[in-house]
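Hey team,

Filing this mostly as a record. A colleague (T.K.) asked me to run one chain through the structure pipeline before their review meeting, and I want the input and output archived in the tracker in case anyone asks later how it was produced. No errors, nothing strange. Just documentation.

Input sequence:
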Amino acid sequence: MADKYLLRVTAGPSYDPTSHQTVAVNSGTPTQIHSSLCDASISVRIQNYRGLPRGSPSTSSYFSHPPHTHDQYSISFSLIPHRTISGKSLIFGNDFEHPVRDRIPPGFSAAFGIVKWAIDPGLDGDVYADKPYLYGNALSSINILSVGPKVRENGLDSVINAEAGQGEEAITEGGFDGGQELRESLNIPENAAARQKWFLGGHDRLENWQWEEGRLYKADFFNPYLDFNEFALKLPGFSLKVLGYLGGEDYLRYVLKDKETGEVLFVVVFTLLPKEQLEAEEANSSQPSNSDEAKDATQADKSFEPHADDLD
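Output structure:
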């Protein structure tokens, strides 16, 4: 059934799909987002990718790095906030515009329990709500976090230029150009898993952290459990295929947002599209329209009109 669909990934500064760009998956070329809230540069990698744009690489050298050889996907980003956001306010996760309660597959409650136990204990949400959501605090949900310098004067463009030629290098936990010293001043553990657990350990730790205006942050969210090609959740000792419960076009949306204000920094959407429908649309778009045919016919008629000099 999975081979009847293709995946399309888009990203933008809001929920509005008209503000989104198609992400070049596995390409090494990030998608840049600029808004009043932040500048962001987003890269998406998917193992064994089967989707749009046509001809996209099926994998990335990112998955050859030892920490990621078993991962199925990655959403990594560079972020420069345009205003300071409290550590307790910035959240990352999934949400939907419409109810999904009638399509939740059997076994979901057990799967969610495993996710909270094995992957993200800070994950919280309500999948039975009219607008379902699953959010975690960004400081404990994001797998890798690297803190950089203040770059407000040069902005994200200088960061992109500096990273040019680095290919699909994986982000590592820590800090650089003053970022490591900032982490140490807050007693944040150096190890990624320890940092995630540390921020789950007390509300005051979240309040002491600030996502500073003009500072560069690099982050990576990944795991080996979600297979986008099968739309299946493969957990330790448990597998849950959700493809059969999706009706028509459907999506999985990741969002980074300020929960206090509801403002969105960026959105990444994974949309499942029926291959047969796409092929029909592509075939129609390659055929000349009626207006084009009429125009061609008119031009052909004119080409056969006799000139005055040709008449006896």
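Quick notes for T.K.: The first helix runs from residue 108 to 118. The radius of gyration is 24 Å.
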